[in-house]
Amino acid sequence: MRKPSRRKCKVCGEYFVPKFHDIRIRWCCPEHGFEYSQQLLAKKKIESERKRKQEAQQERRELKVRKVALKTKPQWKKEAQAAFNKYVRLRDAGLPCISCGSTPEQKFGGTMDCGHYRSRGAAAHLSFNLHNTAGQCARCNRHDSGAQKAFEQGLIERIGAEKVEVLNNDNSTRKFDIPYLQRIKSIFTRKARALEKRRASQQEAA
């Protein structure tokens, strides 16, 4: 008669000889059998939760892709302009208003705007031109119609008369397609984040 094979208990690690040679038994006593069943249930629960999270993440990714695919050109243009404007505000944070020279408190979405020397309405092709933009107080930008003459003088002092002259003579026409607007949003979102991190590191080191 063949000698019963010994097995290692999944709970305590001790070797035992299972009764009735049942190959399904993986525990040396009823108590360890119950404990092992609880371990299996816990493992199954963890795996189920992990699978649920993976499926939820996949669903969110697919939803994001669908939303991106459904975005219109005006929506992309709005998002691209918001990313660009934020970068300009961060770039010029701490500098005086390009038009009146005042130094209002720098607040995102607050008193300092991203002003356009040649307005987006009159020169849409310069909407994303960094030379055409500067930090401008809300009073000059919103209530004084951009204070263009003072803006021009401020730009001359900041970037030079030649570059301002280039802006004044730039009457090219350009239509921004969706891929270009996507690139603009991506580029200036990264630039803004990098600038924020660099400023934060400098403040911590100070």
UniProtKB/TrEMBL annotation:
Matches recorded under InterPro entries: Phage_lambda_NinG
Pfam families xref list: NinG
Coiled-coil blocks: 39-73
Keywords: Coiled coil
The protein's name: Bacteriophage Lambda NinG family protein
